[in-house]
């Protein structure tokens, strides 16, 4: 039997033995791996190191292709990859975490190391990235008094809990622990949002408490915004686009003359909005900028090296406080590696520049995954939304999605109008797109993009059923609109100047289409459509949506992305690993549905199509 005295000696003995084991296996004179800023430069294990990184986001890339994309990064000459972490994807409900499958960020980081790449981690908690709500979870907005990205105690408590949990997953993968993470960003471009340095210190302390102490912490902002978003004892990165390199670094040198000099985002492309042309940028200009920066010895991270796809509901939106511009599903970004992982001419331009300026020969470029067409198939089976509604929740005024514990999808508002009455139906604000129905017939739409707030109604009957179907088209991810990005009918509803009260609120999150009673009866308006298509061998394709109106597509139960006839995107990237040999199930929800529409798989993207009315 062991005495208490002997038991007390065991922990100390274990520590001595562990230290002895470390000394035994570590070569004489070796040091703990490290990465830090000192003497105006970055030092890797005490020696000068220049970061040549490219951004790609694990959540935007099918897990089966992580290694493929990482090898492509290595073959372009990169020595690191940069990634955001999206809080809303990992904590969909308070205290409920998901680090599985495509969200296994630790595995992505490990695979990067296995492919000979370092990692720059951007844990936020705010990301931006043209991602839904900038990566914030929608449930933060349930309390109308919550103010995100501020010192609001509720927000800070939620952010701290999240970052501590994230630290359990990835802090062990810092370079000081033998992992590939060399740098960790504090917040993100905060100088473009505010200048509360106490808030920035709060976020920095959360990261330290989460265990991010064995990699270099840093901040990142536009050159002019560095004073507002930086911390005095941390190195800064600056973000800019083509033609801005020399002026950007001149500004940085005035603010931080001792360096290090790091372009933390070089925008080699841009993102697309619904109803606007596809971004196409000047690759020659970008290669020249990259060449100039590398010849100066500066560090750089290309944003994006590979954009990928904002699958499901995860596209964000822009707003300057007046205009709302939702992003498309594709995050191709006109990047060096396109949405399906194929190298573009820009890829080879960058590869040549990096090889020449570093004097190194990169590995051969791997063969990218094949693309294949799928023959046309018809959406013959359907189910009306009106026949598949959930139980309502009654309230005097319309409830937001967040108040109903809903993050994405749609919400239906119902009330009865006493008539006859003629006048404008006016909504304080619609977030983000609404169809208005009177007695089941479409009476008009309200589109936040167009700053619309009203629809004229003429009701002759003694009463009429009013339905308002609202879609979350993507919460704003950047700028001052962030704290008010609740979804639904906001700030009251009036008809002919009189308030409308007494609403049924029906939550339609549609994370999966669920079990519906499909039939071959024709269905028009808001409808679900179902079909199957067969493939002999699962291969990447682009699912043609040009015949559809506005809505969402699921493949084998997985939300693929949004479509909208206004373009510019008219085909959704469908990764081969998400298909089965044989039959595959496709479900479409179309707010503007019509019977017997066709779909097919294309062997190319459609990113710059014009508006159409299918």
Care to describe what's here?
It is a single chain. With 614 residues, the protein is α+β, with helices and mostly antiparallel strands. The chain has three domains: 45-358, Glycosidases (TIM Barrel), CATH 3.20.20.80; 374-383 and 516-602, Jelly Rolls; 389-508, Jelly Rolls, CATH 2.60.120. Strands 4-5-6-7-8-9-10-11 form an eight-stranded parallel beta barrel, surrounded by four helices. Strands 16-25-17-22-19-20 form a six-stranded antiparallel sheet, with no helix packed on it. It is globular and about 80 Å long. Residues 1-29 have low confidence and may be disordered.
Brief descriptors of the model:
disordered N terminus; eight-stranded parallel β-barrel; Jelly Rolls; TIM Barrel; 10 helices; six-stranded antiparallel beta sheet; alpha+beta; globular; 614 residues; 3 domains; 32 strands; single chain
Strand content: 25-35%
Average pLDDT figure: 94
What is the number of independent domains?
Answer: 3
Strand order of the largest sheet: 4-5-6-7-8-9-10-11
Look up the CATH topology of the largest domain. TIM Barrel
Low-confidence stretches: 1-29
Helical fraction: 10-25%
The biggest beta sheet reads: 8 strands, parallel, barrel
Number of helices: 10
Question: How far is the first residue's CA from the last residue's CA?
Answer: 82 Å
CATH 4th-level superfamily of the largest domain? Glycosidases
Strand element count? 32
Give the structural class: alpha+beta
Architecture (CATH level 2) name of the largest domain: Alpha-Beta Barrel
User: Mind telling me the CATH class of the largest domain?
Assistant: Alpha Beta
Shape field: globular
Q: What oligomeric state do these chains adopt?
A: single chain
Determine Rg (CA atoms, Å): 26 Å
């Amino acid at each position: 039997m062991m005495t208490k005295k002997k038991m007390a000696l065991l922990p100390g003995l274990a520590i001595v033995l562990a230290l002895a084991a470390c000394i035994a296996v570590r070569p004489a004179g070796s040091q703990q791996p490290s990465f830090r800023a000192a003497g105006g430069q970055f030092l890797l294990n005490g020696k000068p190191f220049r970061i040549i990184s490219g951004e790609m986001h694990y959540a935007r890339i099918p897990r089966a292709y992580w290694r493929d994309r990482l090898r492509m990064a290595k073959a372009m000459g990169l020595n690191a990859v940069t990634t955001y972490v999206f809080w809303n994807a990992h904590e969909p409900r308070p205290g409920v975490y998901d680090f599985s499958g495509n969200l296994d960020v630790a595995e992505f980081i490990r695979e990067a190391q296995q492919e000979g790449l370092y990692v720059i981690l951007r844990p936020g908690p705010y990301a931006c990235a043209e991602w839904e709500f900038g990566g914030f979870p929608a449930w933060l907005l349930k309390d109308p008094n919550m103010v995100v990205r501020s010192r609001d105690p509720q927000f800070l408590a939620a952010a701290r809990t999240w970052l501590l949990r994230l630290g359990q997953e990835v802090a062990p993968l810092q370079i000081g622990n033998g992992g590939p993470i060399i740098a960790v960003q504090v917040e993100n471009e905060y100088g473009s949002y505010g200048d509360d340095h106490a808030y920035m210190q709060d976020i920095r302390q959360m990261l330290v408490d989460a265990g991010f102490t064995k990699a270099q912490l840093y901040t990142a902002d536009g050159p002019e915004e560095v004073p507002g978003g930086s911390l005095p004892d941390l190195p800064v990165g600056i973000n800019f686009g083509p033609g801005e390199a020399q002026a950007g670094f001149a500004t940085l040198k005035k603010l931080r003359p001792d360096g290090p000099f790091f372009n933390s985002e070089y925008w080699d492309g841009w993102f697309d909005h619904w109803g606007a042309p596809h971004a196409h940028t000047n690759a020659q200009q970008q290669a020249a900028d990259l060449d100039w920066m590398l010849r100066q010895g500066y560090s750089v991270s290309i944003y994006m090296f590979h954009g990928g796809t904002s699958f499901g509901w995860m596209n964000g939106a822009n707003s300057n406080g007046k205009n709302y511009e939702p992003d498309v599903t594709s995050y191709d970004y006109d990047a060096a590696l396109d949405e399906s992982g194929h190298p573009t001419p820009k890829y080879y331009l960058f590869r040549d520049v990096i090889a020449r300026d570093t004097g190194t020969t990169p590995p051969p470029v791997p063969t990218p995954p094949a693309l294949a067409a799928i023959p046309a198939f018809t959406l013959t089976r359907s189910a009306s939304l009106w026949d598949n509604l959930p139980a309502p929740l009654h309230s005097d005024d319309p409830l937001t999605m967040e108040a109903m514990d809903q993050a994405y999808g749609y919400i239906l508002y119902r009330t009865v109008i006493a008539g006859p009455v003629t006048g404008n139906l006016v909504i304080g604000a619609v977030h983000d797109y609404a169809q208005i129905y009177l007695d089941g017939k479409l009476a008009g739409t309200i589109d936040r993009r167009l700053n619309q707030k009203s629809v004229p109604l003429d009701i002759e009957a003694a009463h009429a059923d009013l339905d308002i179907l609202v879609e979350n088209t993507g919460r704003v991810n950047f700028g001052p609109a962030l704290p008010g990005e609740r979804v639904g009918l906001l700030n009251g509803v009036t008809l002919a100047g009189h308030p409308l009260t007494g609403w049924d609120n029906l939550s339609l999150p549609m994370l999966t289409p669920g079990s519906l009673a499909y039939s071959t009866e024709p269905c028009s308006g808001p409808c679900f459509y179902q079909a199957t298509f067969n493939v002999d061998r699962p291969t990447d394709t682009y699912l043609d949506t040009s015949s559809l109106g506005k809505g969402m597509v699921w493949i084998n139960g997985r939300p693929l992305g949004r479509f909208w006839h206004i373009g510019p995107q008219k085909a959704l990237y469908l990764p081969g690993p998400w298909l089965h040999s044989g039959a595959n199930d496709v479900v479409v929800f179309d707010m503007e549905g019509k019977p017997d529409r066709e779909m097919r798989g294309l062997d190319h993207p459609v990113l710059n199509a014009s508006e159409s009315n299918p």
